[in-house]
Protein: Cu(I)-responsive transcriptional regulator
Amino acid sequence: MNIGDAAQASGLPPKTIRYYEDIGLVQPDRRGNNYRDYSDTHVHNLQFLARARSLGFSIEECRQLLSLYGDRCRASGDVKAIAIRHISEIERKIAELQAMHDTLSSLVEACHGDHRPDCPILKDLAGDRT
Amino acid sequence: MNIGDAAQASGLPPKTIRYYEDIGLVQPDRRGNNYRDYSDTHVHNLQFLARARSLGFSIEECRQLLSLYGDRCRASGDVKAIAIRHISEIERKIAELQAMHDTLSSLVEACHGDHRPDCPILKDLAGDRT
DNA sequence: GATAAGGGTTCCAGCTACTGGAAAGTCAAG
DNA sequence: CTTGACTTTCCAGTAGCTGGAACCCTTATC
Structure:
């Protein structure tokens, strides 16, 4: 299967698939014309990666997950540990964004937002937290 | 004021302050020995940037905000517009993270997480959404 | 006066995870 | 035989810094 078809099947752009090969995630065979040749297993792994990435796992986490996926003797506890760590990270990010959101919301609410120069948002940024 | 003192006063590392100069955000004077020389206004602007960055504004948004901050004829509506756009972006990111969080949470909950290889998390990643 | 510590300076490379573009090779259809 | 779609490689750029090397400046101490 050519890279274009693998892209179709996995939902990943060809550029990304080549990149994943570069960093050693999915290594396809080569045909006589030097075109990459993707087997069903390759495509399956690409789909796996697409899904894992869409859940926010980093490339290195994906590498570990893929390795566990291919290991018949894996312990589900190892997978779960990675997922739990990732969830904490997500929660941290959400909290960070939520804090920004709350601050900005109250500033925006306090700003009349017309042609006049007086602006509580700029005041806050300038260090005036009255 | 030397860069080290400006760093102390603004809470930004010297490396970051030099970077901000590179991209034209805060341009200090130079002293005879070629050392950067930061005035109170410079430091004030660095603090402004640190605060704006901590609220998640991009560098380009910071540039606009800083420009509006220095413009006595600004309209607060312009500032508000930038903030509102930024809030939407934050909301989008939170929603994205929340969706990941929900999916991962239910997967983690379904995973017994012991030494056995059977794992709902990997099953999901592999495309089995039963 | 020599020297060592603790600033400062420049420049180059690397981080994440791709993405765009150039130049060239390959393949199928008309 | 040419056109167009696809493929290849390689180089560069994105955001926002950060680390490190190699060197200069200032001050204090011996």
Helices of chain A lie at 3-10, 14-22, 40-54, 59-69, 76-110, 120-125.
